[in-house]
Amino acid sequence: MAGPGPRRSAVGVGDAGVTTVAVVEGDDAAPEAVRPVVALLDGMGLGIEWTYPEPGPEGLGVIDAADCTLFGATSGRSAAALFHLRWGRQTYANVRPLRWLEGARSPLASPGGIDLVIVRENLEDVYVRAEGDLEELARPAPVSLTWRRPVNELGPGRFALKVITDVGCERVIRYAYRLAQSRGGRLCLSAKHNMLPRTDGLFIEVGRSLARSYPAVEVEVLLIDDLAHQLVLDASRFDVIVVPNLYGDILSDLAAGLVGGLGMAPTACYGDHYAYFEPAHGTAPDLAGTGTINPTATLLSGTMMLEHLGFADPARRVVEAVEQVYRAGRVLTPDQGGTATTESFCAAVADHLDR
Ligand code: IPM
Ligand code: MG
Hints:
This protein has ten helices and 14 strands. By secondary structure, the chain is an alpha/beta fold. The protein has two domains: about 200 residues, 3-Layer(aba) Sandwich (Isopropylmalate Dehydrogenase); about 90 residues, no CATH class. The strands form three sheets. Strands 2-1-3-14-13-4-5-12-10-11 form a ten-stranded mixed beta sheet, sandwiched between helices. Helix 1 packs parallel to helix 10 and helix 4 packs across helix 5. The two termini are about 25 Å apart. The N terminus is likely disordered. The chain binds 3-isopropylmalic acid and magnesium ion.
C-alpha cells in the first residue's frame, strides 16, 4: 500500500539503522489490541524502536520526531494526538483497504472477491469543524436554493460549513489514481454532486480532470447514495474508491461490516511528510477489560506501517499468517464467532509466522 503513496518522512527511516515508531495506545479497549500487536511486530526483530508519547505538547514532539505513529483509537482522551496526526501533520489520504479474508464472518452469502480500498479525504469537508448558530451568520446570509430564503431566516438553529478546496481535492485524488494504477486499474469517484454542485461538484470536477494524467485508469463516477447501494449489492466490483471526508467515514464502516466488522478494517493515513496507522474501529468501550477485542484491524494497520517503513517482506509474512489463522478458523475472537482472547489470537498469528 505504501508504494504509490506520498514519500515517507524525509527524516529518519533507516537512517542510523534505527526506525522509530511512536505508539499511542488510545482509549478504552484500544490498548488491549495495540499491546499484543506491538509485541508481535517487535518480536520480528526488525530493529524498530517504540516510543510512547505522553499526553501534552511534549508528546506531540515525540510523535513528530518518530518515523511514523501507530495509533489505537480514541474516545476523547487521545483526541489531541489524533488531531495532531491528521491536521498537525497534514495526513490528507485516509486509506482503508477492505478485503474479505476466508473464514471471517461476513453477513453476505458470498463475500469472496471483496478487495477494495476506500481513499477518504482526511482533512476537509465538515471535518473543518466550523459550526455556529444561524444568527451568527453575517447578513445577508447565504440563500438556501431549496428554501429560497437566507438560511438565517429558517429559524433559531445551527449550521456547519462543508469546505472543499482545489488543493484538498487534487492531492487526495492523485493519491487514489496512483493507487488504482498500481492495483486493478479502476477508480470510482463519488460524492453528492447533484445536490451540492459547488462543493461535491468541485471534487468530481477535479477527479475527472485528473483522468487525463492517468490514462491507464478506468474512471467511474457515482452518486454517493448509489455507491452505498452498490457496495452492499456487489462490493467485489470495486477496486479503489475516492470520496470526500464524511462519506468516507460512513462508507468505510459500511464496507467493514461487509467483510466481517470493524475489527477487520485497517487504516493508513498519508501526508507528504508523515504517516500514521490506526484501526478504522472505535475504542469498543463495551469490550474494555475483557481482553477480547479483535486485533486484526490493528495488526493489518501494522502491516501497512511495515510496508511504509520499507519492510515489505515482513509485512507480507504477517498478512499471510493472519490469513492462515482465519482460514483455519480455530483461534478467532468472539466478534468472528470464536472464543479466543486478543492475546491468543496474536499468539496464533505469531505461531504461523514461525512456521
Ligand atoms: C474514524 C473515526 C474518527 C473519524 C473519529 C474518532 C473522529 O470515526 O477514524 O473513522 O470520524 O474520522
Ligand atoms: Mg469512522
